Amino acid sequence: MFSDFDFGVILRSLPYLFKEGMTFTLTLTAVATVGGVILGTLIAMIRLSSLPVLPKIAAGYVNVMRALPLVLVIFLFYFLMPYIGQWALRADQPIQVGALSSTIITFTLFEAAYFSEIMRAGIQSIPRGQVAAGYAIGLTYRQVMSYVVLPQAFRNMLPVIFTQTIVLFQDTSLVYVLSITDFLGAASKIAQRDGRLAEMYLFAAAVYFLISFTASMLVKRLQRRLAVAR
Amino acid sequence: MSMISMRNVSKWYGPQFQVLKDCSVEVEKGEVIVVCGPSGSGKSTLIKTVNALETIQNGEIVVDGVTVNASKTNLPKLRARVGMVFQHFELFPHLSIIQNLCLGQEKVLGRGHDEAVAKAEALLKRVGLSAHAQKFPGQLSGGQQQRVAIARALVMDPVCMLFDEPTSALDPEMITEVLDVMVELAREGMTMMVVTHEMGFARKVAHRVVFMDQGEIVEDALKEDFFGTPRSERARNFLSKILSH
Fold it and tell me: Assembly and partners (chain A) (predicted)?
């Protein structure tokens, strides 16, 4: 069945696929992970706090984000962000937000909802005695969080965070709806230009599989090491 | 003036359940008080109100001249001067032993790193664990962890020490090593409030014994009187049970 296939097209397009496509995919994954974890941790802390109103707003945010399909959120943000920007900055016209900045912001905000649930579980897994011990030596709430609770919560949750990152790595391909050239987008463009759909999509699948599978293997190893250390 | 002064302290969980009923205790400087009583009698709660890990609804607690339950009290500052040792050690598992001992010194007292390390090493030596400075809590036995926890409280130069059942989570063969450290501390004149069932420790170093039952202080007596002739029926009962074997 492969007699009609031209695998040379892959070789020829490698520089484009990786230098343009994969670079963007990995950058978006990294930025959304780091931003999502930071924002998600803040949301988790707000939800677990005894502040008035704010925990409810944070919970609402998480529930809405988790109940919507990612593609829809990408679209919505892309079309709404100029108007939100206009409102926030009190500008006369809608603010210009490029597809690129729009996706980065969308993915960060969207992932923050998922990471906040992970961090919430992580924070709640820390025994109350640890918090009491932190207070007992004179730490403030903020210090107990930054030196006692969060480092442990983060360490306990590291495998789950990485697993979520692998899912995110695959989900970044949805940026195709805004015609952004990520790895899959690049492969798809070559495929259509040269009429080599099967070759390019098979290759793209192989690359996604290889990276995701290797990453999950590494996460499993990390999990075992953490289990020993605890 | 007392080092720790608790006057008519009451605490409720919810509207119905009263854990502490009008408790009053005075602990003088250099005094060692043992608090005992059946489980659920409120002794752990009582000791945790001293550094405001538990809040109170009624009464007044003054530690070294500072009113603990006043809203303007700087609690972190107060807690830094009151050492506390927990039943389950509560060392920070993600930090090495030396880091456990330096955290409070650096972040709360603002000591420099070298000064903090020197102080930590001195106290580790004192509890006989110098060799373990670079290890993590999980690598030490329960007894060793509890000695580290005592050292972690002592590096802060506390004016008094609170012990919340420091030996009840330990295997029998490790209890002595922890009690030895506590006895030494008591003999050096540290003000101590100790919740424990170790009556041997009480006989050896306590000045007074406070006996609690159902949230009340039933008896507050000199050690000699408590072990000699406890006045209350409940204390006699408790003693006969705990000393029968």
Answer: The complex is composed of two ATP-binding proteins (GltL), two transmembrane proteins (GltJ and GltK) and a solute-binding protein (GltI).
CA distance B76 to A141: 9
How far off is chain A from B156, nearest CA to CA, in Å? 8
Instruction: Report how far residue A174's alpha carbon sits from residue A70's, in angstroms, rounded to the nearest whole number.
Output: 8
Residues of B in contact with A230 (CB under 8 A): 93, 138
DSSP state of B230: -
- Chain A residue with CA closest to B152: the answer is A137
Q: Are B20 and B215 in contact (CB under 8 A)?
A: yes
What pLDDT shows up at residue A35? 97
| Residue A178: CB atoms within 10 Å | 17
Amino acid at B81: R
**Tokens 């400075």 sit at which residue?**
B133
Give the mean model confidence (pLDDT) for residues B108-121.
Answer: 97
| Contacts of residue B134, Cβ cutoff 8 Å, sequence gap at least 6 | B96, B97, B98
Suggest the residue from A137, A140, A148, A150 to mutate for an interface test with chain B (most B CBs closer than 10 A).
Answer: A137
Pairing status of strand B208-213 against strand B216-222: antiparallel
The full set of domain ranges for chain A reads: 8-229
Cross-chain Cβ contact A137/B88 below 8 Å = no
Position A230 scores a pLDDT of: 56
The reported pLDDT for the residue numbered B245 is 65
Determine the pLDDT at residue B109: 96
> Is the confidence at residue B145, as pLDDT, over 90?
yes
| ipTM associated with this complex | 0.94
pLDDT band at residue B235 using 50, 70 and 90 as cut-offs? confident
Predicted local distance difference test score (pLDDT) of residue A48: 94
β-strands B32-36, B58-63 pairing:
unpaired
- Per the CB < 8 Å rule, is A140 touching B53? no
**Closest Cβ–Cβ partner in A134, A136, A152 for B94:** A152
Partner residue facing B88 (CB), from A129, A135, A147: A129
Smallest Cα–Cα separation from B136: which of B177, B100, B184? B100
Distance CA B163, CA B192 (A): 8
* CATH code of the region A8-229: 1.10.3720.10
Chain position carrying tokens 């007392």: B2
Helix (H) and strand (E) counts in chain B: 9, 10
- Residue B203 in contact with residue B32, Cβ under 8 Å? no
Is the confidence at residue B193, as pLDDT, over 90?
yes
Kindly state the average pLDDT of the residues B133-140: 95
